[in-house]
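Tutorial, part two.
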Amino acid sequence: MEIIYCESIGSTQTYLKEQIAKRDLKAPIALCAQSQTKGVGSRGSSWIGVDGNLFFSFALFKESLPQDLPLQSASIYFSYLFKEVLANFGSQVLLKWPNDFYIQNKKIGGTVTHLVSDTIVCGIGLNLVFVDEAFGKLDIDVSKEALFESYFKGIKNCPSWKDVFSKYSVEFDSNRRLNTHHREKKISLESAILNEDGSLTIDGERVLSLR
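Running the prediction step on this input gives:
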């Protein structure tokens, strides 16, 4: 995978989506920035772009993904693979459904995924340094280059959704104390049912993991 590095950008996700749509760039490719000024978080919210944190987006052709991967759960898939990389380096990071990284009770990052024509564009932001009291940061010291090398190697090997989901379902059950959001409301995961396609059933309603 080609990796492009830049000092500062509005949003790696926005830029890569635009360039893929115009066909000025094509998958497989990744864009990594030292800082962001207009980072994008879940549900269209902003993500604070403090210098020194991790900001990157990557694009893959849809046909290169596992055939059994439900596209609406792509954020779960890519988030869990990144969580495994962090855990292999010694982190105690948690993955909250569907796309948020936590250390204990504080969010440290997250994943957003979009489909642009025949290409999946995924963006990941992670706090490596302190932002403010509302957020946490990664609990280990590891270089960005080491994270990229391990993560993109794992993506290249492309494990099946079935394999990822079997491990993620254990993660989900152990993190039910955390809340998620649906229709701009905070909802509990305590009684949620995790379905095999990555969606949830909450009070009889199916909730998709669209992030």
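The chain has a mean pLDDT of 89. In part three we will examine how such features are distributed along the chain.
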